[in-house]
Amino acid sequence: MSRGAHPLAGLHSLEVDALLDDPSIEIMVCCGSGGVGKTTTAAALGVRAAERGRRVVVLTIDPARRLAQAMGLPELDDTPRRVEGIDTKKGGHLDAMMLDMKRTFDDVVLNHASPDKAQQILENPFYIALSSSFAGTQEYMAMEKLGQLHTAASANGSYDLIVVDTPPSRSALDFLDAPQRLSSFLDSRLLRLLSAPARGPIRIFSAGMGMVTGALTKLVGAQVLTDIQTFVAALDSTFGGFRERAERTFALLQQSRTAFLVVAAPEPDALREASYFVERLRDERMPLAGLVLNRMAAPAATHVSAERSLSAAEALTESGKHPAAAAVLRLHGERMLRASRERRLAERFGSAHPGVAVASVPALSSDVHDLDGLREIGARLSGE
């Protein structure tokens, strides 16, 4: 198959190499539901881009340990680590890192609060719970880290491409909504009221706050409420910063220097999720580059139809002769049927979203466990 060619007739081909080679593209975001190969796709894109001359960092979210090992790293953490074994003849290099949600949140506090207030926040039990387990915190911190990386790269030229593997979300909306949701929570009227002293010139307000505080004390307990009030009072000076950074990150994602890739598997549920994500990205005016369809069936002998293979397998089975040949023919027939189903699903997606470019990646015979495996994924993404 020639470079950039696409095996699915009637679908617009996603030119992956052209996208990786475009110097105006500074951020690539791989998004989609869990279990579709999103993290592996991000790593493969990073390897291919680096070996084509880009200075790349891949930010992954809770990757499988085998992916770190595939890049020759004992582990991934919050510090970018150089991936050895990359062909650097064209001047590129590859670093990889994993989001540390708690550490990123701590850095936000340390960078945007005075030392005394930062210490109060970091030691507060409500903050510890919020930074570790609050719904949406992982998605928000992924975007916070992206903003930090992009700002640093713009200042020192360390990277010219950031590849982001987004968190696996139950809802396709979580990733886009999380920054605004978290900043709105931290800037909410309720939290501000909780931190306000229950005294002042307006007695009706004070009495009302007393009722609210009393009710919340019964609901969550006096100590928890005290922790919340202490946390909000200490964080008050950084409220505007959360909202400002969330809005700045959202604006960055809307710019033409960002490219979104929706990753899916050729399955009905995954493609429904992908369709929803495509529509949401368009609604938010986010630059969608295309769809990556992972693990497509790729029978070896496509000139032998499923019907012919299964018929021949049945005949051999009934005769009792050549059982191994019968098994091979049956396996081929089943793969041909699967490929046909997947092709119909892909074409149905293409009909619903005619302007979306698609790259398909045939299923590998085994999991990716080294750089060569990532290179193979990158080559298949590019139609080689």
Q: What is the makeup of the main sheet? A: 8 strands, mixed
Shape type: elongated
Amount of helix: 55-70%
Category by helix and strand content: alpha/beta
Give the quaternary arrangement of the chains. single chain
Distance between the termini: 6 Å
If you average the pLDDT, what whole number results?
A: 79
Pfam family, one: ArsA_ATPase
Protein name: Anion-transporting ArsA/GET3 family ATPase
Domain ArsA/GET3 Anion-transporting ATPase-like: 26-297
GO molecular function: ATP binding; ATP hydrolysis activity
Please, could you describe this protein's structure?
It is a single chain. The protein has 384 residues and is α/β, with parallel strands linked by helices. The protein has one domain (16-381): P-loop containing nucleotide triphosphate hydrolases (Rossmann fold, 3-Layer(aba) Sandwich), CATH 3.40.50.300. The chain has helices at 16-21, 38-51, 65-70, 101-112, 115-123, 125-133, 137-156, 174-186, 189-195, 203-220, 222-235, 239-254, 268-283, 306-319, 323-352, 371-381, and strands spanning 27-31, 55-60, 81-82, 93-98, 161-165, 258-264, 288-296, 358-362. It has an eight-stranded mixed sheet with strand order 3-4-2-5-1-6-7-8, with helices on both faces. Helix 13 links the parallel strand 6 and strand 7.
